[in-house]
Write a structure and sequence with these properties.
This protein is α+β, with helices and mostly antiparallel strands. It is built from 10 helices and 4 strands; from the N terminus they run βαβααββααααααα. Strands 2-1-3-4 form a 4-stranded mixed beta sheet. The protein is globular. The two termini are about 30 Å apart. The structure holds S-(P-nitrobenzyl)glutathione (GTB).
């Protein structure tokens, strides 16, 4: 059965592909798995029917008639386990690739999400500037360490893996900021990920949702 994922009916980012259905689309394209998309409105996401799939009232979700999953990282991991192409078969290399998935989500992404939350919701607070400087320092700390570890390698640990896919998706949230531009090797790493044909197909598919919503 072709899996069905959920995505924003009208993405708040104007089709930039920053919502987390993008990393699921990318993973499905990397392994060559066709998929359907159920578009949900902000209101529908908060209704019981969707919360039965995603208790926090968010997207993405994944359903394939056997598995019903939420949490984009877990969905990417499931796709990587069910297909070849995103995780090495060698047990040690596989474990390292999975480690990088967790590092992307648990170590690198949190301060980046904090920054976005501050920008979206705290701009009017008297302590905003000081808070943003603190969050930026945390992001710089992570990017400095990551840049040092990546060096001039193409990917984090040999072949491209789900760890790279998730991390590129996390770093894309910093596209256009000096935080990423300060590290030419990380900027190139993100560009390398975006240049992959599977990313391009995933991006085009999510962008089509945006253009369709503009014409509706
Ligand atoms: N940890 C969960 C987080 C899921 C999540 O944050 N979903 C967001 C969309 S991706 C996050 C996101 C939202 C918007 C932009 N943007 O650029 O506009 C980028 C990313 C959502 O449904 N938000 C609606 C809500 O919480 O009510 C996962 O990885 O699946």
């Amino acid at each position: 059965m072709i899996p069905t994922i959920t995505a924003f009916a009208s993405s708040p980012d104007g089709g930039q592909g920053q919502a987390r259905d993008m990393r699921v689309r990318w993973a499905l394209e990397e392994v060559g798995q066709p998929y359907d998309v159920r578009l949900v409105s902000f209101d529908e996401m908060k209704q019981p029917a969707h919360r039965a799939l995603q208790p926090f009232g968010q997207i993405p979700t994944y359903e394939d008639g056997v598995f019903t999953l939420f949490e984009s990282g877990a969905i990417v991991f499931h796709i990587a386990e069910q297909h070849q192409g995103l995780l090495p078969n060698d047990p040690a290399a596989r474990a390292r690739a999975i480690t990088w998935m967790f590092a992307a989500l648990a170590t690198v992404e949190p301060p980046i999400v904090d920054r976005e939350a501050a920008e979206y919701t705290e701009g009017d607070k008297p302590w905003y500037d000081e808070h943003l400087a603190t969050v930026d320092a945390r992001i710089r700390n992570r990017l400095d360490d990551l840049s040092r570890r990546l060096g001039d390698a193409d990917w984090l640990d040999g072949e491209f893996s789900a760890g790279d896919l998730v991390l590129v998706g996390v770093l894309r949230r910093l596209e256009g900021s000096e935080l990423l531009a300060e590290h030419p090797n990380l900027t190139a790493y993100v560009a390398r990920g975006k240049a992959r044909p599977a990313f391009q197909r995933a991006y085009s598919a999510q962008y089509a949702v945006f253009t369709d919503s503009q014409m509706a």
